[in-house]
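Example for tutorial group B:
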């Protein structure tokens, strides 16, 4: 298929682009490079530097599908500057969908988020949990989900929203390169990489087996495979929503121990009070994705850490 990947110069977008190319698709990456990196665009993909707001300029009727990753994604920033998130994530996505509709493009896969659910008091979290986002980032992503539901019903679009939980790891030369790093695993790995002296653990008094918060970690390669399956099984006029996670919960201390084991570094860590708004446990139910997409995650926490560490060492980042 002839495909467009927005945000394909970013972490997950670059990984999925590399997988699409390996599967034989023709891919053009569109990215404004505000947070992405030009050298992260896989060889073999076309590249257009543009905002999704300008989709009318870069889409054409020959495009058969769009995978939409481009978004602002820092929760703290979204609270401080909500206007940026509404303008970029929602207004930009609307412009993209209008161009998709104008050109009769039938397949659309959206990078959504577990932040749509807010802080549910159930675990594991299924797609039947009522969305209740608690910050502008989550609100903006859920708004696009609602846009897709309407466009699918009214215009026959085959749309899929994939709600990610915690994603980690790398695929060869494609890995995390965030200017502002908020993810646990790369921040822990900064200690053995010599970029930080000590790690930080926030909250040791949660009602969990070791007192630290529990999260669901999914390898980015497994995540990418779900996008290809979503694209291939797209159904005209239907908007599908799938949670993507491993279904396993790992505590912060378990992740820290995995990083110590993989790197052979003691990674000294300081304990700090809980951060406001951090739920005790967030674990996904991916039963729907397994049943409807035939998707099964294959890589565990150790592989996530090992691949992230290899990328960090090889890239020098």
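The residue assignment follows.
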């Amino acid at each position: 298929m002839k495909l467009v990947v927005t945000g394909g110069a970013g972490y997950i977008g670059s990984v999925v682009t590399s997988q699409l190319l390996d599967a034989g698709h023709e891919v053009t990456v569109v990215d404004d490079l505000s947070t992405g990196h030009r050298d992260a665009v896989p060889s073999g993909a076309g590249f257009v530097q543009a905002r999704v707001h300008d989709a009318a300029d870069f889409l054409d009727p020959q495009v058969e599908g769009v995978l939409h990753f481009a978004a602002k994604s820092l929760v703290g920033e979204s609270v401080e500057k909500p206007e940026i998130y509404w303008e970029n994530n929602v207004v930009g996505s609307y412009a993209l969908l209008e161009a998709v509709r104008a050109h009769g493009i039938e397949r659309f896969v959206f990078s959504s988020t577990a932040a749509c659910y807010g802080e549910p008091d159930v675990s594991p979290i299924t797609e039947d949990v009522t969305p209740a986002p608690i910050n502008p980032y989550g609100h903006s992503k859920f708004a696009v989900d609602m846009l897709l539901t309407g466009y699918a019903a009214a215009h026959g679009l085959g749309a899929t929203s994939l709600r990610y939980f915690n994603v980690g790891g790398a695929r060869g030369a494609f890995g995390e390169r965030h200017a502002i790093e908020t993810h646990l695993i790369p921040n822990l790995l900064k200690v053995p990489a010599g970029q930080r002296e000590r790690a930080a653990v926030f909250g040791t008094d949660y009602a969990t087996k070791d007192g630290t918060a529990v999260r669901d970690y999914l390898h980015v390669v497994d995540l990418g495979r779900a996008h290809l399956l979503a694209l291939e099984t797209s159904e005209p006029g239907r908007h599908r929503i799938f949670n993507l996670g491993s279904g396993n919960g790992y505590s912060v201390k378990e992740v820290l121990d995995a990083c110590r084991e993989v790197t052979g570094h003691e990674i000294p860590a300081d304990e700090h009070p809980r951060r406001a708004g951090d739920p005790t446990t967030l674990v996904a139910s991916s039963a729907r994705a397994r049943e409807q997409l035939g998707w099964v995650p294959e890589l565990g926490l150790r592989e996530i850490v090992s691949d992230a560490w290899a990328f960090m060492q090889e890239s020098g980042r």
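The first strand starts at residue 2 and ends at 6. Compare this with the pattern of hydrophobic and polar residues in the output above.
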